[in-house]
Amino acid sequence: MNAARFSRDGPVKTDLAKTAGSNIALVCLEAGQVIPPHPEPYTVVFVVLEGEGVITSGTREYPVNPLDMVTVEKDVDRGIRCTQRMVLLGIRDDLQEDA
Questions:
Q1: Predicted structure pTM score
Q2: How far apart are CA 38 and CA 96, in angstroms?
Q3: Could you read off the pLDDT of 29-85 as tens digits, one per residue?
Protein backbone atom coordinates (compact mmCIF):
# COMPACT_ATOMS: atom_id res chain seq x y z
CA MET A 1 0.00 0.00 0.00
CA ASN A 2 1.43 3.36 -0.98
CA ALA A 3 -0.14 5.27 1.92
CA ALA A 4 1.11 2.85 4.60
CA ARG A 5 3.76 4.44 6.83
CA PHE A 6 5.49 2.77 9.76
CA SER A 7 7.66 4.08 12.57
CA ARG A 8 9.72 2.35 15.23
CA ASP A 9 8.60 5.17 17.56
CA GLY A 10 4.95 4.07 17.56
CA PRO A 11 1.79 3.64 15.52
CA VAL A 12 1.28 5.94 12.53
CA LYS A 13 -2.16 7.32 11.60
CA THR A 14 -2.71 8.87 8.18
CA ASP A 15 -6.02 10.54 7.34
CA LEU A 16 -7.25 9.40 3.92
CA ALA A 17 -10.62 11.17 3.69
CA LYS A 18 -12.53 13.60 5.90
CA THR A 19 -16.12 14.77 5.65
CA ALA A 20 -18.40 16.71 7.97
CA GLY A 21 -19.58 13.49 9.63
CA SER A 22 -16.80 10.94 9.22
CA ASN A 23 -13.10 10.30 8.82
CA ILE A 24 -11.26 7.40 7.20
CA ALA A 25 -7.73 6.84 8.43
CA LEU A 26 -5.00 4.31 7.77
CA VAL A 27 -3.41 3.04 11.00
CA CYS A 28 -0.07 1.23 10.76
CA LEU A 29 1.66 -0.62 13.60
CA GLU A 30 4.87 -2.61 13.80
CA ALA A 31 4.88 -5.92 15.68
CA GLY A 32 4.80 -5.27 19.42
CA GLN A 33 3.31 -1.77 19.17
CA VAL A 34 0.20 -0.96 21.17
CA ILE A 35 -2.48 1.71 21.22
CA PRO A 36 -3.68 1.41 24.84
CA PRO A 37 -7.46 1.14 25.39
CA HIS A 38 -9.06 4.57 25.67
CA PRO A 39 -12.55 6.01 25.09
CA GLU A 40 -13.40 8.29 22.16
CA PRO A 41 -16.59 10.32 21.56
CA TYR A 42 -17.39 8.57 18.27
CA THR A 43 -18.11 5.12 16.83
CA VAL A 44 -15.31 3.54 14.78
CA VAL A 45 -15.11 0.48 12.55
CA PHE A 46 -11.66 -1.07 12.21
CA VAL A 47 -10.97 -3.17 9.10
CA VAL A 48 -7.73 -5.15 9.12
CA LEU A 49 -6.00 -4.97 5.73
CA GLU A 50 -2.73 -6.67 6.67
CA GLY A 51 -1.20 -8.35 9.70
CA GLU A 52 -2.44 -9.78 12.97
CA GLY A 53 -3.20 -8.55 16.45
CA VAL A 54 -5.90 -7.92 19.01
CA ILE A 55 -8.48 -5.13 18.99
CA THR A 56 -10.09 -4.20 22.29
CA SER A 57 -13.71 -3.07 22.39
CA GLY A 58 -14.84 -2.31 25.92
CA THR A 59 -13.95 -5.35 28.04
CA ARG A 60 -13.72 -7.73 25.05
CA GLU A 61 -10.61 -8.57 23.07
CA TYR A 62 -10.90 -9.73 19.45
CA PRO A 63 -7.99 -11.57 17.78
CA VAL A 64 -7.89 -10.21 14.23
CA ASN A 65 -6.44 -11.17 10.85
CA PRO A 66 -6.74 -9.65 7.36
CA LEU A 67 -10.31 -8.73 6.37
CA ASP A 68 -11.60 -8.96 9.96
CA MET A 69 -13.77 -6.06 11.12
CA VAL A 70 -14.47 -4.79 14.65
CA THR A 71 -16.94 -2.02 15.54
CA VAL A 72 -16.44 0.02 18.72
CA GLU A 73 -19.30 2.22 19.87
CA LYS A 74 -19.05 5.84 20.99
CA ASP A 75 -17.46 6.39 24.44
CA VAL A 76 -16.34 2.74 24.68
CA ASP A 77 -12.67 1.93 25.30
CA ARG A 78 -10.82 0.87 22.15
CA GLY A 79 -7.24 -0.26 21.69
CA ILE A 80 -4.97 -2.21 19.35
CA ARG A 81 -2.14 -4.63 20.13
CA CYS A 82 -0.08 -5.67 17.10
CA THR A 83 1.48 -9.16 16.92
CA GLN A 84 2.40 -9.06 13.21
CA ARG A 85 2.92 -5.78 11.31
CA MET A 86 -0.58 -4.38 10.79
CA VAL A 87 -2.36 -2.03 8.43
CA LEU A 88 -5.93 -1.11 9.39
CA LEU A 89 -8.61 1.22 8.14
CA GLY A 90 -10.31 3.19 10.89
CA ILE A 91 -13.69 4.44 9.70
CA ARG A 92 -14.95 7.03 12.16
CA ASP A 93 -18.57 8.10 12.42
CA ASP A 94 -19.11 11.47 14.09
CA LEU A 95 -22.77 11.82 13.15
CA GLN A 96 -24.98 12.18 16.18
CA GLU A 97 -28.45 10.69 16.03
CA ASP A 98 -31.28 12.94 17.19
CA ALA A 99 -32.81 11.91 20.50
A1: 0.89
A2: 20
A3: 999 999 999 999 999 999 999 999 999 999 999 999 999 999 999 999 999 999 999
φ, ψ (nearest 5 deg) of residue 63: -65, 135
- HSE at residue 59, side-chain half, CA atoms within 13 A, is 0
| Alpha-carbon span 32 to 76, nearest angstrom | 23
What CATH number does domain 24-93 carry, 2.60.120.10, 2.115.10.20, 3.40.50.2000, 3.90.226.10? 2.60.120.10
* C-alpha–C-alpha distance, residues 64 and 52, integer Å: 6
